[in-house]
Design a protein that fits this description.
The chain is of the alpha+beta class and 178 residues long. The protein folds into two domains: 59 residues, Orthogonal Bundle (434 Repressor (Amino-terminal Domain)), CATH 1.10.260.40; 96 residues, Sandwich (Jelly Rolls). It is built from four helices and nine strands. It has a six-stranded antiparallel beta sheet, with no helix packed on it. A three-stranded antiparallel beta sheet has the order 6-5-8, with no helix packed on it. A hairpin with a 5-residue loop joins strand 1 and strand 2. Helix 2 packs across helix 4. The longest helix is centred in the N-terminal third of the chain and has 11 residues. GO terms for molecular function: DNA binding; DNA-binding transcription factor activity. Keywords: DNA-binding. InterPro entries: Cro/C1-type_HTH (IPR001387), Cupin_2 (IPR013096), Lambda_DNA-bd_dom_sf (IPR010982), RmlC-like_jellyroll (IPR014710), RmlC_Cupin_sf (IPR011051), TransReg_Diox_bact_type (IPR050807). It comes from Deinococcus metalli.
């Protein structure tokens, strides 16, 4: 992918306008537009300003043909226990550089209901065992083993385990949390 296309893709992924990137980078909207349309080549200084405005490092725009596969063996993921939350979170991915997805194995204890939450990105959840009551905005969904849901994280959402056994979820989201 060419430089201008990578910049446009990142900007659109973040739902930013050229004006937003201009404000964050100090570069003009017409110049940014020319870069995205492959009609101008930015200096390293300009590219660093664009990277900062898009929340990435300069190396994000440098093509790299090196494989970035991250393998985590069973039981080797980081396990996190949150004092304020009655569930267990295990990272299923290593620290894979510029990778954007965050796959987690989450165990939610019976009776737990989360507070409404919203943040940038998107979420995919797949129920491995137990039951999950998922509320996204005004939509309510009852999910059982084998059921999945995919939604924008910007919409307020809650989780609940209405059952009397643990619920085990595969959660994949962006941006990375850990």
């Amino acid at each position: 992918m060419q430089l201008g296309s990578r910049i446009r893709a990142r900007r659109r992924h973040l739902s930013l306008t050229l004006k937003d990137v201009s404000a964050g980078s100090g570069l003009s909207v017409p110049y940014l537009s020319q870069i995205e349309r492959h009609q101008a080549n930015p200096t390293v200084t300009s590219l660093a300003s664009i990277a900062r405005a898009l929340g990435v490092t300069l190396t994000y725009f440098v093509p790299d043909d090196t494989p970035h596969t991250s393998v985590t063996r069973r039981g080797a993921g980081n396990v996190l226990h949150f004092q304020e939350l009655p569930y267990r979170v295990e990272s299923l991915a290593g620290q894979g550089g510029d990778l954007n997805l965050e796959p987690l194995l989450i165990c939610i204890h019976p009776g737990f209901t989360s507070d409404p939450n919203s943040h940038l990105g998107e979420e995919f959840v797949h129920v491995l065992q137990g039951h999950l009551r998922l509320t996204v905005g005004s939509e309510h969904h009852e999910l059982g083993p084998g059921d999945s849901a995919h939604h924008p994280s910007t919409t307020p959402h809650t989780w609940a385990n209405p059952g009397d056994t643990d619920t085990l979820l595969l959660w994949v989201g962006t941006p990375r949390l850990l």
